[in-house]
Amino acid sequence: VGRNILHFKKIESTNKYAKTIANESVDGTVVIAEEQTAGRGRLGRQWVSPQGKGIWMSILLKPDILPTDAHKLTLLTASSVFNALKEYKLDIKIKWPNDILINNKKVCGILTEMSAELNKINFLVIGIGINVNIEKSEFGDDLKDKATSLKIEIGNDINRKKLTAEILNNFESLYLQFLKNNDISKALEIARNNSALINNYVEITTPQTNYVAKVIGIADDCTLIIENNGKIERLISGEVSLHTN
Ligand code: BTN
């Protein structure tokens, strides 16, 4: 991972670019940009990506795993980012399946995109966006209460290069372990021990309905275990937000 790194000053979106070069690029290719002009989040949302203020990168993977196991790599990525950030001794949590929160505000989002056919993955692009040195005033009114940055929480600028390297190192060791032995236990342990959701009530939004459920845990297959009206159910992905009343 990261033996082939493509670095851009300005690009529309590292995920979008990684997808266009996927077929002719090697497994573990990393695309990094200083600025994204059309950074994208989940559900078609926009991702604010100002010049030099964050880590905006995508990892291109060609793992020999089933498409139905791809979501595990999202959790593995979240755990890799978490481990790189934990040295800052902040109140940092993983919000299954793809966000990292500090003091309950989002500091990192992960967007996994897949190209697959039947039982074979052609490629995966895992996009990681981390608000590193963004100032509070740079978040629009809609984001001010929901988003944060390392600089806002710590009070000083953070070295993006060092943090990027640490994330890629963590990712590589968890990824190789996963490919070799299908072993996701280390990433799971990190996600379980530092979960923003476990034991809390959450609001779950699906295309069909909205409901409140209690989060019981994260299963060995990385799905979220919830209790919904006395019934135990599992979510493979989804829009989950903490329920406050
Ligand atoms: C989310 O929380 O909605 C996911 C955000 C993912 C943002 C990253 S930044 C690098 C990569 N390129 C993109 O356009 N998006 C991802």
Automatic annotation (TrEMBL):
GO terms for molecular function: ATP binding; biotin--[biotin carboxyl-carrier protein] ligase activity; DNA binding; transferase activity. Its EC number is 6.3.4.15. Biotin binds at S13, T14, N15, Q36, R40, G41, R42, K106. Keywords: ATP-binding, Biotin, DNA-binding, Ligase, Nucleotide-binding, Repressor, Transcription, Transcription regulation. It comes from the Bacteria. GO terms for biological process: protein lipoylation; regulation of DNA-templated transcription. GO terms for cellular component: cytoplasm. It is an enzyme of class 6 (ligase). It catalyses: biotin + L-lysyl-[protein] + ATP = N(6)-biotinyl-L-lysyl-[protein] + AMP + diphosphate + H(+). Residues 1-179 form the BPL/LPL catalytic domain. Acts both as a biotin--[acetyl-CoA-carboxylase] ligase and a repressor. Belongs to the biotin--protein ligase family. This is Bifunctional ligase/repressor BirA. The chain holds residues 77 to 321 of 326 of the full protein.
